[in-house]
C-alpha cells in the first residue's frame, strides 16, 4: 500500500487551506483524488472507496462553499472534511468491508488474505485510522468553539493524528510478522 498516494489529497488539502481559499483547496484536493484513482486504474487496481468517497466529500463541500456559503470558516471546512472521511471509514466497517481491505488485498497473495490474522490486522488498522479521524475532528471543533485557541493547534493535532495512523499502518504488519513468525514466501509482513 502506498501511503503517500493515499494521503496526498488530504495533505494537499491541509496545506492549501493555509495559503488559499476553501474552494480552491477543496476542488484541487478532489482533482488529486481523481488523479490517484486514475493511477490505480492505470495500474490495473480497483477504485478505492476512500478515494471515491473523498471525491464526493471534496466536490460536495466545494460546491456548498462556492454556491451557498463562501464565508464558511476554514476550521468548519476542515471539520466537515474530517467528518466526511470518518463517515466513509465507519460506513466501510458497517458493511464489513473496511476501507483498508482494498489496499491490503492488492499487496498480499490469496493465501495470506485468507488467514485470520490478516483480517484482524485490517480491522485494527482501520480502527486506528478512525481514531485519527476522531482526533482531527476534535482538533477542528476546538478551533471553532474555543476562542483564542491558536489556529496552528488544530494543524498540530491533525498532523500528529494522521502521521501516527500512517506509522501504525506500516508498523503493525511488521510487528505481527516478528510476533507470529514468517508468513508464506510471497506475502507481506504481518499478514499471517
From TrEMBL:
Source organism phylogeny: Bacteria, Pseudomonadati, Pseudomonadota, Alphaproteobacteria, Hyphomicrobiales
Membrane-spanning ranges: 12-37, 49-67, 79-95, 121-145, 151-172
This protein's name: Intracellular septation protein A
Presence of keyword Transmembrane helix: yes
UniProt organism field: Bradyrhizobium lablabi
Alphabetically ordered keywords of this record: Membrane, Transmembrane, Transmembrane helix
Top-level taxon: Bacteria
Amino acid at each position: 500500500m502506498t501511503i503517500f498516494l493515499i494521503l496526498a489529497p488530504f495533505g494537499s488539502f491541509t496545506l492549501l487551506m493555509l495559503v488559499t481559499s476553501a474552494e480552491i483547496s477543496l476542488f484541487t484536493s478532489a482533482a488529486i483524488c481523481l488523479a490517484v484513482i486514475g493511477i490505480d486504474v492505470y495500474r490495473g487496481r480497483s477504485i478505492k472507496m476512500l478515494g471515491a468517497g473523498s471525491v464526493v466529500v471534496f466536490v460536495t463541500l466545494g460546491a456548498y462553499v462556492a454556491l451557498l456559503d463562501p464565508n464558511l470558516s476554514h476550521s468548519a471546512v476542515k471539520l466537515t472534511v474530517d467528518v466526511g472521511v470518518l463517515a466513509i471509514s465507519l460506513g466501510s466497517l458497517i458493511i464489513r468491508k473496511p476501507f483498508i481491505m482494498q489496499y491490503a488485498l492488492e499487496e498480499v497473495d490469496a493465501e495470506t488474505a485468507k488467514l485470520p490474522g490478516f483480517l484482524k490486522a485490517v480491522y485494527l488498522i482501520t480502527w486506528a485510522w478512525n481514531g485519527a479521524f476522531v482526533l482531527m475532528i476534535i482538533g477542528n471543533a476546538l478551533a471553532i468553539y474555543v476562542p483564542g485557541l491558536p489556529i496552528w493547534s488544530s494543524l498540530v493535532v491533525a498532523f500528529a493524528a494522521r502521521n501516527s495512523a500512517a506509522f501504525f499502518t506500516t508498523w503493525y504488519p511488521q510487528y505481527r510478522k516478528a510476533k507470529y513468525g514468517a508468513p508464506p514466501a510471497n506475502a507481506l509482513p504481518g499478514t499471517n
